[in-house]
Structures are given as C-alpha cells and as structure tokens.
Amino acid sequence: MSEINTYKYYVGGKFAESNSGNLIDIECPYEKTVIGRVQAISKEEADVAIAATKSAQKEWAELDLFKRADLLNKWADQLEIDAHDIAEIIMKEVGKTWNDAVKEVTRTAEFIRYTVQEYIHTNDSAMSGENYPGGSKNKIAIIKRIPLGTVLAISPFNYPVNLSVAKLAPALISGNAVVFKPATQGAISAVKIIESFDKVGFPANVLQLITGKGSDIGDYVSEHEGIDMISFTGGATTGRHLSSFSTMKPMVLELGGKDPAIVCEDADIDQAVTEIMSGAYSYSGQRCTAIKRVLVNEAVADELAAKLKVEVEALSVGMPIDNPVIVPLINKGSADYVDGLITDTIKDGATLLVGNKREDNLIYPTLFDHVTTDMRLAWEEPFGPVLPIIRVKSDEEAIKIANQSEYGLQASVFSRNFSRAVAIAGKIEAGSVQINGRTERGPDHFPFLGVKNSGMGVHGISKTIDAMTREKLLIINL
Ligand SMILES: O=C[C@H](O)COP(=O)(O)O
C-alpha cells in the first residue's frame, strides 16, 4: 500500500505542521480512498498567521508595483509549468475531469496575467475641480486605490484553483496581504497552488494558507479583528451566516443559484437544447451558474422535452480520467440530497424522462417534465445532474416563476426575437441574463454578481480589485 501524503499549511513563507496534531483525511469522491491529509490548525496558529500579515502587508504595498506585478506573472508561469501536477490533484480531490482540471489551471494563469494588467492600467485617476459648477481648475484631485489590509479569501470545492486565485491575485496586486482558507475538500489543491507560489519568491507573510474545518476555525477567522475584508464563495447558508456576524467588515459573497432557462415558442430549439445541455449537466451540475430549471412555453414544450431527452440519454457517464460529462458527486451527503430530491419529484407526480439511477456518489443524469411549482425541485438547488422542465403559458408566467426563487444569480432567455428576449431579460431579477446562451461566469473579466440569496457585492477582475481597495484622494490646491 502506498503511503498517504500529509500536506502542510503555509505561514511565514514556509510550509509547516500544526502543533494541534490534528489531521483531516481527504477522500477521493470516486475512488473512496484517502488521497492525503491536511492540517487542522488551531485558533492560536490562526492568530499567529493573521498577526504576521500586518507588517508584511505594509512592506508589500510599499514595494514598487512592477515588482509585485513581476512576482505575480512569475506565479502564473509557474502554475503553467506545474499544471499537470496540480490538475491531477484537482481531479482526485474534487472529481473534475482531467481535461477540465487542466483547463482550470490554464484559465487561472491567464486570470493572474489579466489581473496584473488591469491593475497597472487603472489604479490611478485624476479629477479637476473646474468640471463642477463653480469649481476651480486650481483644485486637482489625484485618486489612488489603497489596499484594505488583510483579506480573508474563502474558496469553494468546485473550482479549488480558479476561484481561489480569483481572490488571491486581485488582493495581492493591489497591495493587500491574504489569509487563504480553502474548502476542506479542495485544501490539497490549495496546497499545490501555494507550492507554485512558494517557488517564485514572494516575501514571507503576504499570503498565509490556513487549513481546517470551517466549523472549527471558519467563524473564528471571519470575525477576527485582524481581518479587514472577506471574499467568500460557497453555499448560501454559510454566506448568510458569515454576513450575520462579521459585522463592519467589507464583504463580497458569491453564493448559489437556481438559474432558469426561459425558452420562448419562437426560440431556435436546437440551439436552446445545446446550451441547456452544457449549462445544466457539465461537471454533473456542480456549478453555481448551472442551468437548474427550464421554463418553456407550452407551444414548444413537447419538442424541447423530446430533444433534451435524446441528449440526456446520450450523455457520457463515468470516472474523471475518461473525461465524461457526468462524474460522481463530491461526497455521499451531496449524492444523498440529490437522490432525495429525485425521489420526492417522482412521488409528487412529475414525469421522469431519463435517469433516477445511482451508483454510490454517481448520480446518472436525470430529466423531469411536467414539474410544477409545488414541488421541491422547482425551487431547491440540487448541485447535481437533475433538471426540471416547467411548462408555462406566457412570458409573463415564465418571468413570475423565475423571480419567485430565493436566488438571482443568472438566467438564460432563448428567442429569435431579440427585442422580446431583451424585454424579458429586463424583468428578470438576476445579476446577469444571457440571451441565447448558457449561464456561466466567464469570461473572467466580466462583472459577476448575484442578487437576493445569490450574493452580495461583485466579483470579476476589476470589480474584485475595487472591492479589496478603497479610494484615497490627494487634493492639490494650486
Ligand atoms: O460555481 C460557481 C462558479 O463561479 C461557476 O463558474 P463557471 O460559470 O465558470 O462554471
């Protein structure tokens, strides 16, 4: 039997073992074997890590911007060099397909480079007093963006590299220090990206990686007085909990969704089918932006349902190394939840078109027709490969049901009539509405936000930089 790796946390520019002596086993979601152990650090060790960022952050912010930029660009290069090593861990730790795992690392390197350029080109601006009525050209404001201090970055399991670096890179280029707390399932991937980070030669203590159960140290660090800003991506319940007690700290929350695909009777049905399939089922639906319900006009519902059924039946199912669309879910609890939703939807009388098969954490792709608004599946977020079709009589009814959700991340509208699609989009309560396309976060420089229980504040490269900095004016009176 091969030995199980123990991964260290990262503090003071070094990898370290926790004095707590507590380790957390990380199990592969599909092989069900322990692939490694991460440190469960103590509150005292979290205190030390946070305290050490304070003077490091000041020196880091003082460093010439081009030196910070150079280090970040080198990190991007190093991630590409280490891509296969990191991708292998992503695959084994969160069950992402090999191709998607490699793509995630490449996407992340590109993210860092764009972030550096974005900051270099936009961090300073100026205003003249004469532009305001009665103002004077002798008053000139130079407006700089100042780092907030120590950012707490809490990332989720489903994009353990991309969604982590989407917080770390904007924080670092703008002169913040970071305390990085990854999801426990995702923590080895986090260690791997910090191994790449460590090779580049960043100053000690500008980034600390702390690992441990959210229930043990999550709340503790979130309300810690040494944390100046929180950037969180994860479930809505945890997000709401964080916002309830981390008072007076700026916070950006990227949470869940129940993104609807609204299909009008004049839609290009084949196009809608292609977009819905990839929107709903890729990575087994474990994306906050997955399409999680279809609201279709009854005039084309039979055609759409029949075509979706054919496609769902043809979906590849299997293990991540073989690059199928459908892979096992992240853990047993998640698979049990999705299974329960499927059972209830059958009991409630919806028409099961495909699916309702399970092997351990692997839930086969499932499609329901005739789902109604009194069923759980119409409202709950499965984070799994199950899609309800809800038939509607009009655009108004589709909009009403879309907006009755507690979530408002994204939505898709399919219609050949652009004016009609834009009119529907205008009435949808969501951060973004895609016309004739699937719901998705990228490209990564677009602002990304949710309303209602889908989040607070805005992500996306320039918006994340804004959220992690504040303006400071130097006003010159000539
Ligand atoms: O799970 C939430 C992610 O932000 C979704 O990102 P994606 O649309 O690129 O898959």
From TrEMBL:
Q: Does the keyword Hydrolase apply?
A: no
Among the GO molecular function terms of this UniProt record, one is:
lactaldehyde dehydrogenase (NAD+) activity
Q: Where is the active site?
A: 254
**In the record, which residues are listed under signal peptide?**
none
Which UniProt keywords are given for this protein, alphabetically ordered?
NADP, Oxidoreductase
Pfam family, any one = Aldedh
Residue ranges annotated for the Aldehyde dehydrogenase domain, each copy included: 16-472
Q: What PANTHER family does the annotation carry?
A: ALDEHYDE DEHYDROGENASE
Q: Which family does it belong to?
A: Belongs to the aldehyde dehydrogenase family.
UniProt-recorded name of the protein:
Glyceraldehyde-3-phosphate dehydrogenase
**Source taxonomy:** Bacteria, Bacillati, Bacillota, Bacilli, Lactobacillales
